[in-house]
Prior knowledge:
By secondary structure, chain A is an alpha/beta fold.
Amino acid sequence: MPYLDHAATTPVHPEVLAAMTPYFTLEAGNASSLHASGRRARRAVEESREALALALGARPSEVVFTAGGTESDNLAVKGIFWARRAADPRRTRIVASSVEHHAVLDAVEWLVAHEGATVTWLPVDERCRVHPEALREALGAGDDVALVTVMWANNEVGTVQPVEQLAAIAHEHEVPFHTDAVQAVGAVPVDFAASGVDALTMTGHKIGGPKGVGALLVRVGVECTPLLHGGGQERDIRSGTLDTPGIVGLAAATTRAVGTAADRSGRIALLRDQLVAEVTKVVPDAVLNGDVDHRLPGNAHLSFPGCEGDSLLLLLDARGIECSTGSACTAGVARTSHVLSAMGLPEDRARGSLRFSFGDSSTAADVDVVADAIGPVVERARGAGLAAPRG
Amino acid sequence: MRVLAAMSGGVDSAVAAARVVDAGYDVTGVHLALSPSPQAHRDGARGCCTLDDARDARRAADVLGIPFYVWDMAQRFAADVVEDFVAEYAAGRTPNPCLRCNEHIKFAAVLDKARALGFDAVCTGHYARLVETPAGVELHRAADPDKDQSYVLGVLNADQLAGALFPLGESRKADVRAEASARGLAVADKPDSHDVCFIPSGDTAGWLRERIGTVPGDVVDAAGTVIGRHDGAHQFTVGQRRGLRLSTSAADGAPRYVLSVTPVTGTVTVGPAEALDVREVLGSRPRWTGDAPTGRFRCRAQVRAHGDAVAAEAELVDGRLVVRTEVPLRAVAPGQAVVLYDGDRVLGSATVDATSPG
């Protein structure tokens, strides 16, 4: 049965699981302990830090392990905001793209509501791209800006942003630049040093690693006030007993995903293109959203005019096809996606959209199953769309 | 057969869904999101549209091993149920929003969408029985007289009933709770929902005041003599005794009740209990569970969800229903539904427009 929701999560790769397993039982020491088992755990953590840094073009000392993408985003947005404002009280403005994941979006809005921050939302074009000129304009003189945050690649429509260019513009104004690279790592080349970004969010479970562990890469010299206070385990930026098996799994998954990225990307981009071709053959008015050129290899985000996304999802689910109407976090109640709104998609095209996301386990057979199902499913969903307009 | 189980997050709809799963149907659970901002209703177990309720419904669906989705019906609910509720009160009437919801949401918007998606029926946790006959499906009272909900289903037509499943109709509430517990459903001990689901505070008068505003008016007796003032007619319904705050007592010392509410002037007329007795009820918007009756026919009439049904004769006159009861009905407010029964069978209903002592 086709699992085409790799942008939501992926299974732990067997190699990754094998690397993690000893650290649950045989090597269960606390990496902060001074005795022998603690030292062995610490060695595993530090080797993982080095491996992760190597895979992402960072220095080991720039790696802060966290409990995943949401924590990394919150830490970066709030922590860098607080630190910059403390250093220079004029810097209370945040510049953020209007298509960020909720982990960034809601953290920014929380700072606006509770910490006196102001925000400038960067517009995107109809392909979801942030234009460098838009950032330049938003920064203005830039001396009131605490942070710029623009995701590396969008989780819904898969558009890849010109992060390097954007970071360089932020730096012209001495403003730190954060990027959420949760969807980008393992899919497109991500080199922390070369990109010039100051902070980068990544997580394990999108790339064959365990859920609940991730990292924030923080450039040396960039101040970041902690969210979690306690033992100060991670450079005093993050406290909490280190999750040795999780960290080992995160590093193993990242090393593996980055090492195999070129092969996988080529393969799944081909499957993705086949899916889009097959679907638009059967449903000629289906539209591919996002950017054809700057796109995650595994992402196909399609609109089916006249359908409700949740009807399509239900009907495909009943046929064993697993995909998504958008990001899983907002999928409880169908709300028009802020990403699609920012792209200026008409309401009906936004509501009738589905995201298929490919990964390691995807095969040509998955594409065939969707191609066979999509015609009757869309026809039926259109009937339901007319029966209950606007739900 | 493919069945869509509407799951409110309460014990009844969870057990109803479990039973249709056991019956071998292909079941999908759906929770209806009826509030535009569900987090605003986070506390309290009164409603059926809080985030906690959605979570409880999802948990039950997971235990049953069925797919589960949330359908956003908030706009339809606001337009067809909540706005109607406010407008009816503003017009001095006393609506029953559960009937509106069954008529316009559960067995219209939801059933239509379900059918379009390939489902054959919508299953709910209502206590009522559906009886198959050669002429079609009949709606009957539930076996448990204390829980019988046939009254709030009296607005459904034959086509809607043909697409409904009420698996709890033969059961008693206590048995349903015990069954939920035995099935490992965490909602087994969840309190019943009460009152109006979209007014989680339970303060209907206060909720209405925010929407209609306070228009002070006179409280008068049957002779038209002003005997008090009030700060908003919406807080009064026919038959109400409490909250009148009258300055003078009746000559005979007998308690006084609201007899009528006049919308434009906001005048509330009060009088003795006997003045509440009516034997004739006029209703509009007749709904029939089967074919519309012709001529005058004998039936039993019920004017509130858990009231008694009294012997009556009814007749459709120019599209309006005229019901004359053998014994008086007490305190019938315009806006209420009059539901007609033949024994246990629901024949149909109408919305009360006017009453007279007959």
